[in-house]
Amino acid sequence: xxxxxxxxxxxxxxxxxxxxxxxxxxxxxxxxxxxxxxxxxxxxxxxxxxxxxxxxxxxxxxxxxxxxxxxxxxxxxxxxxxxxxxxxxxxxxxxxxxxxxxxxxxxxxxxxxxxxxxxxxxxxxxxxxxxxxxxxxxxxxxxxxxxxxxxxxxxxxxxxxxxxxxxxxxxxxxxxxxxxxxxxxxx
Length: 187
Hints:
The chain is an alpha+beta fold. Helix content is 34%, strand content 32%. Strands 1-2-3-4-5-7-6 form a seven-stranded mixed sheet, with helices on both faces. The longest helix is centred in the middle third of the chain and has 16 residues.
């Protein structure tokens, strides 16, 4: 195989990641869901434990993901490769804020996919939820890749919340990021 062919194939594989779409999760996504939810590399910084069986995943999709106010799967060619959610804060004083969360199957890390998905969310969520003024994201201090995703998507790093969350039995520091409805979208 010559260099031109390799380069051409490489460009094609990069191009397939430019067509990122978001859609509502469906029960039929369970096998794709298990690709990231059953992977300890993926779940290590998540509040949920690694999934061990398909029934567990079906229960989550049916009872939590589908009824969630704003949870979408990240897709390439309609194949779910991760998910992104926006969870509104509750209480009469917190309705202007929501928390962003996302997860991506390990084999898609480092390809700009999560950044593109977050940018799609940011470009739409403030119109969909007119009362929303602030989108927040909390990231484990050791999750440098996720911090980079947010920075590249235009989020502002505000600081470190020390011993903020207990994840998998350990008290963890979290880095807090925000994007305001008045902030400029990143290209």
